[in-house]
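tool_call: predict_structure(chain=1)
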Amino acid sequence: MANAEKQLQAYNMNDLRRLAKTISVKKYSTFKKDDLIKEITAVQKAPETAAYAYKYIDDASFNTWKEAAEAEKSDALYPLEDIFGLYIMGYAFEDTEKEDHFYLTDTVIDLFKVVDTKENAEARLEVQRRLNLIRAALHLYGIVSFDQLIHLFKKYYDEDVTPSELVGFLEGSPYDISIDEDNEQIVIDDMNYAQYEMVKKLQGDRPYYEPEFGKFIKFSDPNYIDESSNHKKLKEWIEKNIDVPRSKHQSIYISLLQLIMRGEKQDEIVKYLMSLDVEFKNVQEQRDFFDNIAGIVENTRHFKYRGHKESELKTKTVVKEVKVGRNDPCPCGSGKKYKKCCGA
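tool_result:
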């Protein structure tokens, strides 16, 4: 485990102030570095801060924290995706000798048992339900108006929220969610200004994609891909044509999708494949590959189409999604049956 005070010495003042703001250190801008570090570590040890982390961190981080506390493990290393929520609150640090591996601080494990109460568990379910709906909307639309969020809360949760309640909830989250109160909208955090201008223009007054709740909430996972037959065909092509360990197939698939959706030219995609020692045997094989790529472009959900696929807009086909059964677990993650939760 890491000693937080020692590890924070490597942070610059901007990072320290960002962390201090996240965990609600009072008057953090007035402290010098050493004093700010002492104040941060003192606040981190407070049960109130741990309770805040308990309610707001993502499920992967929560499960890592819980398992570490139950096993009283002090030396385990984790990938960033397993501890991200703890990392942004300064409860985890990167191993200096093993890049992209992280470990928990000597404070956080004991704190889990302090804050793992029935009251906090119930509060966490409600916070995560709200966060998951907002994340799903951002991952589908990129730019989401307050009106659309209010509509989604009513449609999927039968919950009435106001713009001020939305802003208050979002500002209380430790995650970077860009809130544009002037235009009454939120924007996904990794969208730069040029991308924003392009997406906003292309969206126009296009309707939002709103599938059945069980499908919609899947988009709260940033790694979820709504795969078409073209996506699956690309996966099969990778397995057949790229001679790497099977464990690397998924990362190659994701890299290709990123190239495709960034609109890279064929030459760039060919260059990437050549870096993997892959060359097309003939012109027809290359043509078939890029025909399938065109199919992926047409069957990928885009911010610019507010979550719709290009193929859906062309055909104006409404895709009927599979509904959640009333006795199935609720997709919001509450652990309750759908009929006793979001389907009530």
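agent: Strands lie at 92-94, 102-104, 143-145, 178-180, 185-187. Proceeding to next step.
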